[in-house]
Amino acid sequence: MKGTIFLFSFTVLALAFSFASAYDPSPLQDFCVAVEEPKNAIFVNGKFCKDPNLAKANDFSFSGLNIPGNTNNGVGSNVTLVNVDLLPGLNTLGISLARLDYAPYGGLNPPHIHPRATEILVVLKGTLYVGFVTSNPSRLFAKVLYPGDVFVFPIGLIHFQLNVAKTEAVAFAGLSSQNPGVITIANATFGSDPPINPDVLAKAFQLDEDVVAYLQKLFGGSN
What we know:
Layout: H1 2-18, E1 34-35, E2 48-49, E3 77-82, E4 96-102, E5 108-113, E6 119-125, E7 128-133, E8 140-145, E9 150-153, E10 158-163, E11 169-175, E12 183-184, H2 185-190, H3 198-205, H4 209-218
Antiparallel strand pairs: 1-2, 3-4, 4-11, 5-10, 5-12, 6-9, 6-11, 7-8, 7-10
Helix pairs in contact: 3-4
C-alpha cells in the first residue's frame, strides 16, 4: 500500500510539471549543473554551469527523503527541501521538491508564502487541514486532505497545513522553481533583523505595543 501511494504521489508531481510552464526561465541547453560562482563573477539570477563533459549522474540525484524530519520544535513540523543547493542538476529546470513531516495532532506548517513558486502538495500519510488566502479582498480556500489527496497553492499566496489527526502525517510537495524561497509570515513580521518599528506593527495588527514587544521578543526580532 505504501509503495502504491508513493508511486501515485510522484506520478502526480511529474504530470503536473510536464503540463505546466515552469516559472523560472526556460533552459537553453540540455542541463546546467550548478557550481560555485567564479571569484569576482557577477551573480545572474541562478547558478554558474559546470562543464557538461564533467557532469556525473550524482549531479542529478539526491538521497534521504525516506528519512522522517525532526518535528520536535515550536510548530511541530519539518520541511526537507531539495532545491538547487542540494541537487545541482536542478539548475535552470524550474522545479524543486520537499518532504513535509507533521507531529501528531497540531503539527503545523505555519502560514507562509513562496515568492517564486506555485506548490502542489500530495498527502502520503495522515490527515491535513490545508488552505490558502487570496490577495485583497482576502478569501480562504481550505479543506481536509487524506492520503492520496492533492492540493495546489498558487504562487505568492499565503498558505498553511495543519495535522488534525492523532497520528504523524507526511506529505510531499513539488514547487515550480529551482529555488522557491519561503517567507514565514509570523517570523518575517515579528522576527526581522533589524526589527520593524513597533508602532508600525501595533497599528497594522491593532495590537497593544506591549503585545508587539512580546511577539518581537518571542520571534527574536528585538534587541
